[in-house]
Design goal:
about 525 residues; alpha/beta; eight-stranded parallel β-barrel; three-stranded antiparallel sheet; 20 helices; about 40% helix
């Protein structure tokens, strides 16, 4: 029995670009489009030609694509103009794309309020726009904006809108939940009625996420007969975002409910690119990835409780709904005060450390973690600090940066000035480092790294080091509150790591996290030991 095809339409570069704070460059658009085409996305909506210089240039020289249909976006012709003389339609035609997606109103409230025209005029605009592109042999998609709200308010008119496009040759009629307020039961009810008039092979779904149901709504529409899903990478989009293709695609491919009935153009060997694709977008946008995102998030396959970890080691299916490798993700065992021996052993195995499960050092590491977490440390998210701690307890980390003293001075006259000095004992010499910065941590960091030229054996290891993030959490209240600091660092290889420091003094907590970050870099790079080591 042959499976029905589900088509995937990506609108990251158009609808996703309408997200607050998002502004794709031409290079960004080319990079994202190439990755999506390589994965096997059926349609990529590149933007709105003529709307801005970047989109216009993007369409004038689009990236090479495999079997993906590059799609231009626009709106129906304006009232009072013919389709042949409408500048907006001319820009779409001149974009020379094999497919065109045009948006039009399907809610009579919007026709009157937003467009200020009569219902009949809107229907005429839809009809003439459709005929204009169908005549040009372009694949034509009609985005019925606000369809579900329109159907609930005036089902007869909403149906007339999509029927005018369908009767005049539109390949696809996309049912849009533009305000994102429709629930899955409503999607099923309305789609089931629409499909009695228009075949499912001509229907698509475009869902927004304002009730956190965009993915559920998209899958519900497929079950009712819709055969195209529109969405974005990571659910990027206006307000609460669009349907997240990083969740939809693996659900279609890996969940039997869908994989047994339908097929998509994305092969299983390309599924493993999804996590990389998700993180590429975050990198381009300079955003911190959502760790809790389904399938591709860093925490999607993380295990913290000792009982869970023990079960996962026996068989991952005990607490994982799929193999994370299928979508390019990986299992992560969290170390915390909830940990058991299984957590420690699993993490040591990840670091390539072979140790007998009955070795007393395993319990020693576990006890140390729990003692430290009682005093405020948290290794749930500070992997580098835990790796250093474990290896130190196993006697595998030499001493690198021996600190004799440090000082931070903050003063204010016309502006605040922060100065820091650190004295190290390195290979029998006192090395004094000085620096200034925007604040105490920045000044300490500058003091250490900018002055380490004096210590040639370590300076080269730090020349490409950057601090990406700095977080402070006050663990209890009052003037003697304990402070926990988390620092994220990276290097030219693009590898990032997290270290933690705890102290009643915020400067000391920050300094401990900073030194751990530097020590971790030296340890991973196999730097020579400090001859002043104890």
């Amino acid at each position: 029995m042959s499976k029905e095809k589900i088509y995937i339409f990506d609108t990251t570069l158009r609808d996703g670009a309408q997200t607050e704070g998002v502004d794709f460059s031409l290079e960004d658009k080319n990079k994202i489009a190439s990755v999506l085409s390589d994965i096997g996305i059926d349609y990529i909506e590149g933007g709105w030609p003529g709307a801005n210089p970047v989109d216009t240039k993007f369409f004038s020289n689009p990236p090479k694509m495999n079997k993906t249909l590059f799609t231009a976006f626009g709106m129906t012709k304006k009232t009072g103009r013919s389709a042949d003389n409408d500048p907006g339609l001319a820009s779409l035609m001149n974009a020379n794309t094999p497919a065109v997606c045009v948006v039009g109103k399907s809610w009579d409230f919007h026709v009157k309020t937003a467009l200020g025209i009569k219902n009949e005029e809107n229907l005429e605009n839809i009809k003439e726009t459709t005929k204009h592109f169908v005549k040009s042999k372009k694949e034509f998609l009609f985005d019925a904006e606000h369809f579900f709200d329109g159907y609930k308010a005036n089902p007869e008119y909403a149906m007339q809108c999509i029927k005018h496009a369908y009767d005049n040759g539109a390949r696809w009629l996309i049912l849009c939940d533009t305000n994102g307020g429709t629930l899955p039961n409503e999607i099923r009810e309305i789609v089931s009625k629409v499909i009695k008039t228009i075949p499912g092979k001509n229907l698509g779904i475009h869902a927004h996420n304002d009730t956190e149901n965009a993915v559920a709504n998209s899958l519900a529409a497929v079950e009712c007969g819709v055969r195209q899903i529109q969405g974005t990478i990571n659910g990027l989009g206006e307000r609460c975002g669009n349907a997240n293709l990083m969740s939809i695609i693996p659900s279609l491919c890996l969940k039997k409910t869908f994989s047994s009935k339908y097929e998509v153009n994305i092969k299983k060997d390309k599924l493993s690119s999804l996590t990389e694709c998700s993180r590429l977008l975050d990198e381009i946008l300079n955003r911190k990835p959502n760790k809790n995102m389904a399938y591709v998030g860093a925490s999607a396959f993380s295990h913290k409780g000792g009982l869970h970890v023990s079960a996962v080691k026996k068989d991952p299916k005990t607490y994982e709904h799929i193999d994370p490798k299928l979508i390019g993700n990986h299992r992560n065992i969290i170390i915390s005060n909830q940990s058991g021996r299984s957590n420690i052993l699993s993490r040591l195995e990840k670091y390539g450390i072979k140790i007998d499960s009955k070795d007393f050092k395993v319990q020693k590491i576990l006890d140390e973690v729990k003692d430290r977490e009682f005093s405020g440390y948290s290794y749930d998210g500070a992997d580098a600090s835990f790796e250093l701690l474990a290896n130190r307890l196993l006697g595998k980390v030499p001493e690198y940066l021996k600190v004799k003293s440090y000082d931070v001075h903050v003063s204010k006259s016309d502006k605040i000035k922060t100065k820091a000095s650190v004295v190290f004992l390195i290979d029998g010499k006192e090395i004094e480092c000085h620096g200034e910065g925007n604040g105490p941590v920045n000044a300490l960091d500058n003091a250490i790294r900018s002055n380490f030229k004096k210590v040639t054996k370590y300076y080269n290891f730090f020349s490409d080091l950057k601090l990406l993030d700095y977080k402070v959490r006050i663990l209890n209240t009052g003037t003697e509150a304990t402070t926990r600091v988390l620092i994220e660092s990276t290097d030219k290889k693009g590898i990032s790591w997290f270290t933690v420091g705890v102290s009643p003094n915020i400067i000391e907590a920050s300094f401990r996290a900073l030194i751990d970050s530097l020590d971790y870099k030296l340890f991973k790079e196999k730097a020579p030991a400090n001859l002043d080591a104890k």
